[in-house]
Design a protein that fits this description.
Elements lengths: L14 H11 L2 H6 L4 E2 L10 E6 L16 H6 L3 H19 L8 E6 L19 H16 L9 E7 L12 E2 L3 H17 L5 E4 L3 E2 L2 E2 L5 H4 L10 E2 L5 H7 L7 H11 L12 H12 L5 H17 L15 H13 L2 E5 L11 E4 L21 H9 L4 E4 L3 E6 L5 E3 L31 E3 L5 E7 L2 E5 L5 E4 L5 E5 L11 E6 L2 E6 L5 E5 L2 E5 L5 E8 L1 H10 L3 E7 L19 H13 L3 E6 L13 E5 L6 H10 L33 H4 L17 E11 L2 E10 L5 E11 L10 E10 L4 E9 L5 E3 L4 E3 L3 E8 L5 E9 L9 H4 L1 E2 L5 E3 L1 E5 L6 E5 L4 E10 L4 E10 L1 E7 L4 E7 L10 E9 L2 E9 L2 E9 L1
Parallel strand pairs: 2-3, 3-4, 4-6, 5-7, 6-9, 11-12, 11-25, 25-26, 26-27
Antiparallel strand pairs: 1-2, 7-8, 10-27, 13-16, 13-24, 14-15, 16-17, 18-19, 20-21, 21-24, 22-23, 28-29, 29-32, 30-31, 30-35, 33-34, 35-36, 37-47, 38-41, 39-40, 41-46, 42-45, 42-47, 43-44, 43-46
Keywords: Hydrolase, Signal
Pfam family, one: Glyco_hydro_3_C
Organism: Streptomyces spinoverrucosus
Amino acid sequence: MTATTPPFRDPRLPFAKRIDDLLSRLTPDEKVAFLHQYAPAVERLGVQAFRTGQEALHGVAWMGPATVFPQAVGLGATWNPDLVRRVGEAVSKEVRAMRTRDDRVGLNVWAPTVNLLRHPLWGRNEEGYSEDPKLTSAIATAYTNGLRGDHPTYWRTAPVLKHWLAHNNETDRSTSSSSVRPRVLHEYDLRAFRETVEAGAVAGVMPAYNLVNGRPNHLSPYLREQLRTWTDEELLVCSDAGAPSNLVDSEHYFDTHEEATAAALLAGVDSFTDHGTDSTKIVVRVQGALDQGLLTEADIDTAVRRQLSVRFRLGEFDGYDETGAFDTPEHRALAQEAAEQAIVLLQNDSLLPLAPDTRIAVVGLLADECKLDWYSGTLMHRSTPLEGLYERFGADRVEFAEGVDRVLLRTSAGTFLHVPAADAADEVRGAEGALDPALLAGRTDLPPLTTDATGTELALIDWGGGVLTLRAPDGRYLSVAEDGYVRASADQPGGWVVQETFHLEPHENGHLLRHLGTGHHVSVAAEGVKVAAENPEIFEVVHVERGEDAVARAAAGADVVVVVAGNDPHINGRETEDRTTLRLPEHQERLLRAARAANPRTVLTLVSAYPYAIDASPLPAVLWTAHGGQSAGTALARVLAGDVSPAARLPQTWYADDADLPDLLDYDVIGGRQTYLYFEGTPLFPFGHGLSYTSFSYADVTTRVAGEAVRVSFTVTNTGDMTADEVAQVYGHAADASMIRPRRELLGHRRVTLRPGASQELTFELPLNAFSFWDVAHGRWRLYPGPYDVLIGASSEDIRLRTTVTLDGEPATPRAVVRRGLDAADFDEQSGTEIVDRTKTSGDAVTPVGGGSGELVYRACDFGTGVTEVTMQVAGEGRAELSLDGGATLATVTLGTPTPGPYDYTTVSADITVTGVHDVHLRLRGPLRLAHVGFSG
């Protein structure tokens, strides 16, 4: 280094000193400009432009061809952190390699998603790992370690976790509020984030669109109170796209964007993702907040410092640029290994594995598909189930029937819709079969559909819920471009607004064909077929062939039928759209019934982003896999053939019926008895379930309390005749708890490979805090003293070994309500209430849902030698009625005159005479917001 080299360029100095130096050299305007997602270069200092955000959920997304690994929920199903770490390493190497040829590729990757899969109808189920926080954090930690890389100083990429916090619905996602009680917050939603951050390979988080307890996540006090206390590293908080503007535009939480921007920055948001590449609006808002005194330059410095910390760790200021690797043989092999390890055998009555000479009929809408999702990269290689079975069993032994309806659409004039032929130059696939992204948006360089006397036979693909796609014989999907014309121009349905989906609406003696992307109906004009707001065409649907007839023919002549059913990740459940039912679409159920009726030896293979409720009882074999990426078909064929024994496990509960599900917006997993932790019904398939082609025995369990941990050891033996993996799972249960605790809770797991006859001793060091719970009475974690069941087995319900360990802990003590009072949200039980924001910056209050009535229960409240007055901090209007132990009302406080606003609290009181320890019941009536209850004597 020379004497003129600025300290921020000196790699011998600690990052903190270098950041201080660079920060001191930036002008106020330059620092403000850094707050937008697209931070500009500072040429006078040689500082490059920087962009936060590169999607890399299961491969590099949106930047062209890349290795496509199984969806995140499929990676979660592997229960294999080592595998997922290697996937993360491969993805990070491809990020670096792609960046060398395209500087739009960013090194700040927005992955993984650690939102818990609480509700299986969530449209983004495919993006999470599990409903369990322990499994989620284990897989997320592995992926972030892979993304970070193994250099002692510099990070290969900088992972940002999505989406902070309690985000599990797409319906009204930017205006709905998740009511999360403290126990659920600490034991469930925060836990997956915490354990991943504490592992040390996380660069930051992204707040979610929704509100939590009435407050937008982009203002979450938990960013300060929780997240930033978990690590000594500076964490970068990146807003979700458009969310800063939502604070005013859709949520109406603030009146001005200056107020909203200042509040988000002060809460901890460091980078604003808003208005695409146009940073001017954010810059103006920040400058306006500074001018109004809502922010100081020190506030700006804090956010910029966090950004610079990430950039220094990436090696930007030291010329560090790790050589990446792209589409290597190792990455292709890893994609296949991951796809194989993600396949769950749900049911098997000795039908699988298939013999080499089996004649197979492979049928169904997903049988010859390799589907992508919104966060996939572009395929360079692909393998569908059909292609995989051809390769493994031979094309002469495999017959295919997709099972779609073949139709002609007759117009009111008696003509038929006609698809013009595509020129050779308009082939829908590029080099090596890679998908052309331009095809996903609807092209305008192809001729629109017309009509003629004979028409073109179309594949009508019914995805359920009234949603269908139409495909020409050459594989092109009907799509609508910006000019409104209908063309056969898309290789697959896709895009942020899908332009390839339609709905048939009965009308008079035929049907109207409504295009879902625009909401307009299809019409026929002299210049071509288009969608328009007027003159809709009335079509007659002429069936050339029913899909179930083709399936039945293929099934009847086969030894075994493989029905491949599931979803298209862009349709009926995706970002912005939740599902409405667990059921398979009716058309796919008809195909399954047709196959089974023609041939009882039917294997159902579900390829989907989420669980289904199916009638599995008459099926000899059922498998599930998430969309498995580029090697999905090869992996499935190898599992069906027995080249690989399936060993994946369900990362979430599969419920038997929609009636088993809570309301989508009910985030109280404890009160609502949700997930395997609390669900009291009988699942279709339980959490952790998955079968094998061999068998395993468990024996010789021992437990010992050693210091701050419980050591659990046992032996697993492969008692079958083929080498296979087993996923051993350890669960805990508080056997004598005085409050609701999980039925069982995952404490550890390990995936091991064992040869026939081989045994392995597994040992788990379980920290004592894994057995603790959040004590709402005292606002902290507490280990309850007493017996704990340790349950060991192959799933949450397939328990092979049981033992009990007695732990010392802190006995329960009554709530000291005379000294501390009761924070309203610290209830033990509730009905008919929701938690809301006490103020716009911090704290919680409780109010009846919809301004009706609700009840709060606080157990074991100690009034000592006696109190004579109860006081309540309330806002709004209504009344609160207090009783003890469920008895008669002892005191009522009324707020008859509404307070000026929801945050204008006042104190009301009533006389009361109470001594000793009692359960306090508070009944809230009307739109009353209760913040705190105090007692005095």
